[in-house]
Amino acid sequence: MLNIFVEANCNRYVRDECQFCHVYEPLAKIDRSDWHLLPEQAQVMADKIRKLDIFMELAQREINLTGGEPSQNPHLVEIFKIFRQLAPNVRLHTNLDIHSKTSSRWTRLVEIMKMKGRVDFTLYPTVWETRQKPLLKEILTLQDELIVNMIFEKVPDLLTQIKILIEFFTTQGERFNPVLALLENYRLNVANILKENPECSEEEFIKSMEGAENYTCEGGFTFLVNAILGFFVDEHGKRAMQSQPFPKSNNLLECTIPRGTIEIMTVQQTGEMTPCCDVGNLQCQPKFGNLLNDSPDEIMRQIEISRAKMIAGAQKNRKNIDAGKAGEWVEEGIPPYCV
Ligand code: SF4
Known about the structure:
By secondary structure, the protein is of the alpha/beta class. It has one domain (2-322): TIM Barrel. 40% of the residues lie in helices and 16% in strands. It has ten helices and eleven strands. The chain has helices spanning 24-28, 39-51, 53-61, 76-84, 104-114, 125-142, 155-170, 177-196, 202-208, 296-322; strands spanning 2-7, 63-67, 90-94, 118-122, 145-152, 215-218, 221-229, 231-233, 239-243, 265-267, 273-274. Strands 6-7-5-4-3-2-1-10-11 form a nine-stranded mixed beta sheet. The chain has a two-stranded antiparallel sheet with strand order 8-9. The radius of gyration is 20 Å and the shape is globular. The protein starts with a strand and ends in a 17-residue tail after the last helix. The protein binds iron/sulfur cluster. Iron/sulfur cluster binds next to loops.
């Protein structure tokens, strides 16, 4: 999958003010004049992707337009069309914190859904009733797929969000019965662990959720619900070793590079690339080149240089963790939880 930033706006309007938002720190530095990716830049990126086999392969699986908040970009529809020429599967991720159907942010999303682009969203309970819920109803009439992300800081928060979704889909008709069945099973698993072991570790939580599916493709509708851990971020923008819901154990990130594969590539608005879902918040220093400024040959050279650093850094991180020095940054500049 290719993640491409099309808009940076984190903390630029009232609701995005949480400093623990995973894009707060990287985006806070971006000048207002550079908030929006321009169609000309998107075209440069697309032309470069065409010339690089690794990128083309990832693009064929999926291109995910993200940010910040992509619906804020006034050129979004044009940018969508540019990336759509590369691959049929272009998704867009929104916060769906949109005041009404008259908003130009919403009309951009509608235009994209009508062109078979898919829109996913992150559930925010604070704006669910007034903003997200009415528009989600509309989305269900325009597309037959949906990914819902739920960021949670405590396990009870996750249960709250699941209940919100259950209440919603209960009123959407029989077509969504498989979605409801999935959500109900998910709810039971989360409720059960909260009852039996409320202070559970992440490992125990994962084990208890083994029977809970998060994906269904029945009744002509594909649905996926994604539970995402929240993390504290320090004053330098560095993510904690532990997640918020499971503070007793280190949360390690298995980097795919030492294993010899690239599954995701994230391209920031600046053109800088990292081979994982690092949108700048993880502060991984070895980049895979710059998609806007570097030639395909330069990018390939940079990939090899950074690959070696990631492999060496991941080994050092393992050693540090085993030696009780978890959290120390290594000279290769990869985050201490990446192994
Ligand atoms: S080292 Fe960590 S942050 Fe860097 S690419 Fe790998 S997983 Fe991502």
